[in-house]
Design brief:
Elements: H1 2-10, H2 15-23, H3 33-44, H4 56-64, H5 66-84
Helix pairs in contact: 1-2, 2-3, 3-5, 4-5
Amino acid sequence: MGAEILRHEWGITDDELLDAVRDHVSGGPHMDAQAQVLFIADKIEPNRDRHFGGLNPVRKQAMRDLDEAMASLYAFRITELVATGRLVHERLTHPET
């Protein structure tokens, strides 16, 4: 939705930027460095500490290696979702049993 607002209301036409905005919440399979930076920045910004503690190691990783920071964030999130019994993504449903 944010990418469509940027395109239609702000006239942004840079597809790489729009893709980065689309992927900044859940990530995506083919994220370039710009998309990774936006994804990571969203997850490690200082206000996240009140909801998710222990982000300082990921902040340090992000300064050294974007791929390493991405992997740490995905691992953190998947562990949290499994522990709370939630779906990895809201568009996914439980398979029929």
